[in-house]
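FAQ

Q: What does a record look like?
A: Structure on top, sequence underneath. For example:
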């Protein structure tokens, strides 16, 4: 299957599913559609050497009651 976008070769970290290895992340209709190797898309970004946290919006957050 050909996806709209693919992040190629980054180290995917997903603690919930015990994933921590280099792989591709495919995006279709604005959502993560697949994780794996050899995925292709209309737009591809080489993210080799980068860490990818699929589905995580913000890795760092401060919560206060100062509102």
């Amino acid at each position: 299957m050909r996806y709209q976008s693919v992040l190629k070769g980054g180290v995917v970290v997903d603690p919930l599913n015990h994933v921590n290895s280099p792989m591709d992340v495919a995006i279709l209709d604005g959502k993560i559609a697949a994780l794996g190797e050899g995925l292709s898309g209309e737009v591809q970004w080489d993210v080799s050497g980068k860490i990818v946290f699929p589905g995580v919006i913000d890795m760092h957050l401060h919560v206060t009651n100062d509102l």
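Q: Is there anything notable about this one?
A: DSSP finds no helices and five strands in the chain.
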